[in-house]
Design a protein that fits this description.
With about 120 residues, the protein is mostly helical. Helices cover about 85% and strands about 0% of the residues. The protein is built from 4 helices and no strands. The protein is flat, with a radius of gyration of 16 Å.
């Protein structure tokens, strides 16, 4: 039952990172402390999204496969959650710099898909 410990840890970290993201949005001004507020915004959002996507993908995998190999599902779901979160954070950073276009979004998606295909074929 070690996967329950990992799931609980991911759930707690996700909850606290969502809470910290809301605190950053409501309490920090991006105009007074630009570097600190942007770094806290992106890092807390990254952890929150990665945890949320990992939990969603894990429960979808367990529900769809109905197998007892929970550790493999957890590792794969965490990797996919992190990759999707990286794609979203990079897209938000591009949008903040005003350089995001539709083909940049497609290239980001293609990079994430290629990395995922690499890991999928390696397993």
């Amino acid at each position: 039952m070690i996967h329950n410990t990992y799931l609980t840890g991911i759930l707690i970290a996700t909850f606290f990172s969502w809470a910290s993201w809301f605190v950053v949005i409501y309490k920090l001004s991006p105009f007074s402390q630009r570097t600190l507020s942007l770094s806290l915004f992106y890092s807390s959002l990254f952890i929150a999204l990665a945890g949320t996507f990992a939990l969603i993908f894990y429960f979808l995998r367990v529900w769809a496969n109905k197998k007892e190999i929970y550790n493999v599902h957890l590792n794969t779901s965490l990797r996919q959650g992190v990759l999707l979160s990286i794609m979203i954070i990079v897209g938000l950073a591009f949008q903040r710099l005003r350089v995001l276009t539709w083909w940049d979004g497609i290239l980001l998606l293609a990079i994430v898909l290629l990395v995922e295909f690499y890991f999928h074929n390696r397993d």
